[in-house]
Amino acid sequence: xxxxxxxxxxxxxxxxxxxxxxxxxxxxxxxxxxxxxxxxxxxxxxxxxxxxxxxxxxxxxxxxxxxxxxxxxxxxxxxxxxxxxxxxxxxxxxxxxxxxxxxxxxxxxxxxxxxxxxxxxxxxxxxxxxxxxxxxxxxxxxxxxxxxxxxxxxxxxxxxxxxxxxxxxxxxxxxxxxxxxxxxxxxxxxxxxx
Amino acid sequence: xxxxxxxxxxxxxxxxxxxxxxxxxxxxxxxxxxxxxxxxxxxxxxxxxxxxxxxxxxxxxxxxxxxxxxxxxxxxxxxxxxxxxxxxxxxxxxxxxxxxxxxxxxxxxxxxxxxxxxxxxxxxxxxxxxxxxxxxxxxxxxxxxxxxxxxxxxxxxxxxxxxxxxxxxxxxxxxxxxxxxxxxxxxxxxxxxxxxxxxxxxxxxxxxxxxxxxxxxxxxxxxxxxxxxxxxxxxxxxxxxxxxxxxxxxxxxxxxxxxxxxxxxxxxxxxxxxxxxxxxxxxxxxxxxxxxxxxxxxxxxxxxxxxxxxxxxxxxxxxxxxxxxxxxxxxxxxxxxxxxxxxxxxxxxxxxxxxxxxxxxxxxxxxxxxxxxxxxxxxxxxxxxxxxxxxxxxxxxxxxxxxxxxxxxxxxxxxxxxxxxxxxxxxxxxxxxxxxxxxxxxxxxxxxxxxxxxxxxxxxxxxxxxxxxxxxxxxxxxxxxxxxxxxxxxxxxxxxxxxxxxxxxxxxxxxxxxxxxxxxxxxxxxxxxxxxxxxxxxxxxxxxxxxxxxxxxxxxxxxxxxx
Lengths: 194, 563
Ligand SMILES: Cc1ncc(C[n+]2csc(CCOP(=O)(O)OP(=O)(O)O)c2C)c(N)n1
Ligand SMILES: [Mg+2]
Description:
The structure holds two protein chains of two kinds.
Chain A: E1 5-13, H1 18-29, E2 32-40, E3 46-54, H2 59-69, E4 73-79, E5 84-95, H3 101-110, E6 114-118, E7 122-129, H4 131-141, E8 146-151, E9 155-158, H5 172-180
Antiparallel strand pairs in A: 1-3, 1-4, 2-3, 5-7, 5-8, 5-9, 6-7
Chain B: E1 3-5, H1 6-16, E2 21-24, H2 31-34, E3 44-47, H3 51-65, E4 69-73, H4 77-81, H5 83-91, E5 96-102, H6 118-122, E6 128-131, H7 138-150, E7 156-162, H8 163-167, E8 169-171, H9 191-202, E9 207-211, H10 213-217, H11 221-231, E10 235-237, E11 252-255, H12 262-270, E12 273-277, H13 283-286, E13 297-302, E14 316-319, H14 322-332, H15 339-352, H16 366-377, E15 382-385, H17 389-397, E16 406-407, H18 418-428, E17 434-439, H19 440-446, H20 450-456, E18 461-466, H21 471-480, H22 495-501, E19 505-509, H23 515-524, E20 529-534
Parallel strand pairs in B: 2-3, 2-4, 4-5, 5-7, 6-7, 9-10, 9-12, 10-11, 12-13, 13-14, 15-16, 15-17, 17-18, 18-20, 19-20
Antiparallel strand pairs in B: 1-8
Bound molecules: thiamine diphosphate (TPP) and magnesium ion.
């Protein structure tokens, strides 16, 4: 993996528009997204975005801090690639006559991929791996003719028991706010908040 | 269980937040809301003449008072007219709440009449925004919006509400507390970073403070003074930081930046330790980043960690609220006086004072006019400005010495801010004299608000610095485009007649000798007043750091600028 990509993992509120907020931030600040993958998590209402950013080494710090400023971003962390499991899934549709199947299967086996669809003229190959491995497989399949291809973009988790998920509760400031600013003006309002 | 309409829920919620003034403009999508204003007399609605002005007024209101400013507009064009004001407030971190109506829910996304994707439009220019799709969500959303706008790094929050949500009935339930799990408010700094910062400051021989808007926003002027006095550290202000320390304080050395003083910019460039306090190392204040004192060690205290290292390498970032961090730092640093360093700066100042003086002679210059206004109106008055030469001269010559005394558009640099911001400041501070220093260009962008001020009895004194030019642009064309004046000369209307048309007093000032009387007369008038100061036309603002140059390349006077 080249040294100028950074894997940023963010837990975000599953609100409408949150993807828009994130992509809008990247566009506005001129951060380059190489890939972005979103999916649900173990916690209802929270999604995880894994974003691969291209740029100089100090960019990750700004990306992380700017992301953290978004109210809908709950936590964000830059994953050290050596201490994380990083994977990407690709589906590759390769031109393949029946007499070529054996040969292509051999290549796929070496990479521990699988064939998930066959027609008289094509096969679809599936591989989950680190990006380098995927790139290597693609290079090996290129001579046969790649008809089309889709990649999910990287997803990643820190190795070991550590997690990014922090289940936060109300802070001191939040409590104070409601005592000071949000309190019920005495006697004035007929409505009870109870 | 209390059932109420969405409109009532919104207004009740605002009352619970202590909101008593809303600047707004009606239209179809907010009709059900306007229908309910009479039932909530605790909230005063100020009918402006243009939504942009509603937004700037809310902004001026918030800057003058420190309280949440609120503006309201209808869907589509009403909402898009707010965009400049929203961006302006967010750029300068002003606690503001913008509420817009939208088309009914069933029409959203179908290009309904007066539909604009306003949350999509404001998304990149707000701290946060909401589209509220059910009346039952209004109370929680408004509480949350106000919470976000007024805490942490303050800013603009926008809430968009479809018309039928104002009508829908729901239970009114004021949330016991707001909980935004993705939001943290820095308070005190952690002990480790305070120790680190104090060690750097204690080892400094030539320390300097850059004090920004954060000092004012956090009400930390007193904390700043104590810190600076203990460390014996000279203070420079950014444009928006003016007022954080009185100009006559022994450690106050005035404004730095593009039109800062020669000595301030050279002090910034010669320091060995820079302590940034509540500021964002903006390019107008810093000059060319690469040459803004590359050898100095930077300690940067800011409530927004994303400001650390954004523009300049920061050796010691300190995350926290300056009001809480400064006492920590004051306790941690040693008492110093830095006699030699201060003597060096004082000498520099006395040698270069001439470039920051009101030009001698009896011409009517903007410098003369604004310094006289400051002298007569005094420290208790509030001054707002537009953007351009008059803004820089106001910053240089109005002796800004009190927090919230000086209200100006810094980050966005919005012409037309001056009059509506003054209107908002006056609405917030009815017992203070409010003067707005206007450009003849900027004034013509938003002076329709005189009608609002007449309706609302807001006696703002509008001092137009009438130089017949878009002066700051003309200055750049003169200096950087070989005198090639393109689209900068403007014919002006008769400003005194404009005053008459609005039924207020207008005073023309064409000679220096008339200035003092005119100011006295305006101050004595119970209503708004226009003063048309016919100032010298082709004056330039000095000193100047040409754009793209370093602070130490400050040019003091009218010579050819070569770059
Ligand atoms: C809304 C807006 N449009 C354009 C500009 C660019 N601009 C900056 S200063 C300036 C001239 C301002 O002229 P005036 O209000 O007469 O003030 P002066 O510089 O003459 O004091 C212009 C056009 C701006 N800052 N804001
Ligand atoms: Mg002008």
